[in-house]
Amino acid sequence: xxxxxxxxxxxxxxxxxxxxxxxxxxxxxxxxxxxxxxxxxxxxxxxxxxxxxxxxxxxxxxxxxxxxxxxxxxxxxxxxxxxxxxxx
Length: 88
Prior knowledge:
With 88 residues, the protein is mostly helical. The protein contains four helices and two strands.
């Protein structure tokens, strides 16, 4: 079993969305894209934003950062998927 689950992760990412607004993340695919992009950033040398990340795999760290709200998924109107789910 994955921890956190996809549902928990989607709820955590969308927690700051006001009622009536469109959620930032609507599917597992969006979470996978954002997590993979952040993992690539970590592999490229960016510092992790969660404590205790030393020795963990970049994807695990990326998921934990998203779950804790350390990084945000920024929606964009660009046509390319990588740009659409920019992680900032």
